[in-house]
Each structure stands twice: as C-alpha cells, then as structure tokens.
Amino acid sequence: DAGVIQSPRHEVTEMGQEVTLRCKPISGHNSLFWYRQTMMRGLELLIYFNNNVPIDDSGMPEDRFSAKMPNASFSTLKIQPSEPRDSAVYFCASSSRGSYGYTFGSGTRLTVV
Amino acid sequence: DAKTTQPPSMDCAEGRAANLPCNHSTISGNEYVYWYRQIHSQGPQYIIHGLKNNETNEMASLIITEDRKSSTLILPHATLRDTAVYYCIVLTGNQFYFGTGTSLTVIP
What we know:
The complex is a heterodimer of chains A (113) and B (108). Chain A is 0% helix and 55% strand. Chain A has strands at 5-7, 10-13, 19-24, 31-38, 42-50, 53-56, 65-71, 74-79, 88-95, 103-104, 108-112. In chain A, strands 2, 4, 5, 6, 9, 10 and 11 form a seven-stranded mixed β-sheet that branches. Chain A has a four-stranded antiparallel β-sheet with strand order 1-3-8-7, with no helix packed on it. In chain A, a hairpin with a 2-residue loop joins strand 7 and strand 8. Chain B is 0% helix and 44% strand. Chain B has strands at residues 9-13, 18-23, 33-38, 45-50, 55-56, 61-64, 70-75, 84-90, 102-107. In chain B, the strands form two sheets. In chain B, strands 1-9-8-3-4 form a five-stranded mixed β-sheet, with no helix packed on it. A four-stranded antiparallel β-sheet of chain B has the order 2-7-6-5, with no helix packed on it. The mean pLDDT of chain B is 92. The interface between A and B is medium-sized, with 22 and 18 residues.
C-alpha cells in the first residue's frame, strides 16, 4: 500500500494565483481529511469528507478555500486567490471504520510570495 | 478544542524509558484517547489508542488511569529517532483535533 499520496510536495506561487493541492487516499478508506499546519496555529482541521460527501467544513478559513472529492480515490483543495498568509504545510489524511486512526500523507509545503 | 493538556517539552536519555503525560479531565465515557507523533517535516503518525484498559503495541504502551482523567504514553527504550512532537488527542466524533503536543528530545 502506497499510503496517502499528496502532490505536489512543494509549491511556490505568487500572490493572487490559484493553487490546487491534490490527495489520493488509501484504497478502501471512506473518510478524508484536510489539515493545515503553521507555526502559529499548529495543526488545524479544515474539512472532512465521508463517502465523498463534505461533512464539516467549519475549519475552512475563507471563501477563497474550496475542497472537492469527485470520487473515492481523489480530492483537491483549492485556494483562489492565494495570499501570503496561506503559506503553510497542508496535510491530507484518510481513514476507515476498521483502521486505527488516520493515515497522513507527507504534506504539501505551500509558499505564497 | 483539543480537550487535553500536555507539557510543552521533555528530554529523555537514549535507551531510557520516555514517559509522556497527558491530562484529559473532561473526557466522556465513550471517548477514546489517541496518541500520534510528528517527526520534523513529516505527517503525523499513529502510535496507539485506548479506552479504559492499558494497551501495548510494538511502538509503545498506553497507561490510562482508572478515572480516565489522565494517561501516559511510554516509549520503553527511547532512540534518537523517537525525537518528535507527541500529540495526545481525545477523539470527538470522527475528528481529531490536535493541540500543541509535547516536543520530546532524545539525548545521546
């Protein structure tokens, strides 16, 4: 099992540009979570999906952020337009009823200049 | 909304047991205690979880007090690779809320 796969690993973009982060959960996992980590705020839960349906997006900071899960094997987190304060490491995680906790991906380090 | 309290940092000598405490005094009867760790620049990694009984796996042991208001994660023989931030989390619904954790430094 390749684990949770995130791409890209690193992204540098200019302020105002659209950024799309991608996640492939573990096959068979039916829950998917997006987290953001910064030094100031630590790990924050942004949104989570259950069976491809968004359940709780109360952690999404603003309307500039949106997340989709078109099928069980793919999710995106989009920021449009991006701002320097969006710079962070974004983690995706997946889980299922039979799994112990979440399995996290390696993260995408986003830098907005 | 982490519902847990951990010391911000700890040191441990290599080869010795590392005992990481966590207070969760408002835990409900059916809420599990989970432990994760995050090694620098990597995603958090699941370690162990428990409800009432003590648990042990290949990575660590989890001791939960009888009143369930606190727990201790034990790494029996700490190595340099165990240097990481350790998070104690009370599972609420299906969502993990990470607090600030304990930064463990294993010293040679």
